[in-house]
Amino acid sequence: MVRKEKGSYLLNDQHIEVYVFIGEFQAHMNMKMARESDPCAIVIWENLDEFIMETPNPVIKNKFYATGHRLLGQYGIPLITDNQFHYFHSPYKNDLRLEDLCLHVFTINPLSIRAIIYVSLAIIKNKSKWDWKYLEFESRTYQLDDMARRLRIYIESKGKVRSRGFPSWNELKDKAEGYDIYEI
Fold first, then answer.
1. Distance between CA atoms of residues 40 and 127, nearest Å
2. Could you give the CA distance from residue 158 to residue 71 in angstroms, rounded to a whole number?
């Protein structure tokens, strides 16, 4: 099922059907688990047996962690949100860090300027607890490593280096005052 090439193990292309089957089966199991927690749930991201689901109803179940914009309030950035709830399921984690939450916000709302603004404010407000190395490592799981790198450059340069789709630093400063963030 795997082959060794130049010191690395790679999936053997001769067994592609098996890999497709395993992926589809895991997606089925994730959806089944999500629907058992709430029949209205949909899976919006998955990686093996970890997934993020969206539902109109609150869920209280082991190994389902609330995530998304709604939780930024725990880090000093309370938001008015829609009536959708987001949950991260993982058999490997016992809690979520701010870095995880920020990656989930970007996964839920890719390319959203609103997500960039509020994640940036959460990072700045909680800079003493923030770990860029952890974010960059975890971002690979979500295929957000480029976004994590651009976000770091944007914040560390105080907006002098900003990627397309990022707000101006003055726009961020205006929002920051509403959250009692003055050191920006």
1. 37
2. 25
Q: Which residue has the tokens 């990072």?
A: 123
Residues in the chain: 184
- Reading the block at residue 132, the tokens are 């860029």
Distance of CA 82 to the CA centre of its chain: 18
- State how far Cα 45 lies from the chain centre: 9
Cα–Cα nearest to 102, from 63, 60, 144: 144
Local structure of residue 92 (DSSP, 8 states): S
User: Which tens digits make up the pLDDT trace of 85-125?
Assistant: 999 999 999 999 999 999 999 999 988 999 999 999 999 99
Instruction: Determine the residue type at 130.
Output: W
Tokens 């997500």 — which residue?
115
Neighbours of 7 (CB within 10 A): 5
Only one residue has tokens 């404010």, namely 121
Return the pLDDT at 13.
79
Residue 99's contacts (CB-CB under 8 Å, 6 or more residues apart) are 130, 131, 134, 135, 138
pLDDT value of residue 100: 98
> CB neighbours of 159 closer than 8 A, spacing ≥ 6?
166, 168, 169, 170, 172
Residue type, 120: S
Closest of 97, 68, 93 to residue 83, by C-alpha? 68
pTM value > 0.70: yes
Domains in the chain: boundaries: 2-177
